[in-house]
Write a structure and sequence with these properties.
Strand content: 25-35%
Number of strands: 9
Shape: elongated
CATH topology of one domain: Immunoglobulin-like
Helix content: 40-55%
Number of helices: 6
Mean pLDDT: 75
CATH architecture of one domain: Sandwich
Largest sheet: 5 strands, antiparallel
Order of helices and strands: HHEEHEEEEHEEEHH
Length: 250
Amino acid sequence: STDDTHNDSGNRAGETSERTASPINTGVSQESVTDDFDQKVQKVESTSGASNVSNESTEDEVKQKPNEDKGVTLLYTGMMYHEKKEVTESITKWLTTFSVVRDLKALQSYLENEHPEAEKDGPIVPAFKYNEPDGILQLCLQDTPSLESGWTVYPDQSPMQIRQYVVDKFIDNPMCSSIHISVYAKPGIAKDPLHCPIELTGINLSKIIYIDRTPPPSSMSQLQFYRDPQNSILQTDAVSLISSSAINIE
């Protein structure tokens, strides 16, 4: 009938309304889900930030590590020595060398084997440090002699620098960590001894060393002795022996 049909439609509408109005209960509120999501986001951001800080810290440590490891604490020794290279009537030449090493005995042994005639009477600068990691020691001529003095001091390179890493790398070859200076004297003109100051910079010692040389003889007879003292001594002894024995050498 019309009434029954109307009642059935009403019942169905009521059931549909009840189902629509009644949400499914999952046991978790929307606020809880939102809070949990926010916490996870904050945790990820925190972890990412910590990671960035850690990476930056590690990079800083790597950058600083060479300064901490590098040998500003290593000790070095400098030594000056001279070799006579040329003796003539017009000029006398020496090669003055300043070497920096970590083992002075090794340098002395090297000179005995490779440069036995070197005059090892120059100044020694013991136990110094470079001011900076991979530092540079520089030799600075303070007062070069005038031409009128008969002396000339001429560096073989400019600037005169010895780098720390070169000393460390070529431990067995001190020539790689050496500075060479040519010293010239004119016989008869250079009458006063040479006393040429050189300041050392870039190391922890405030130091001035000197190139000291005596002037060459001015006469030919003195020059012969100066050039080869051993041979001149033998010649002098032979003349004395002949004279004392009254031997006629004609």
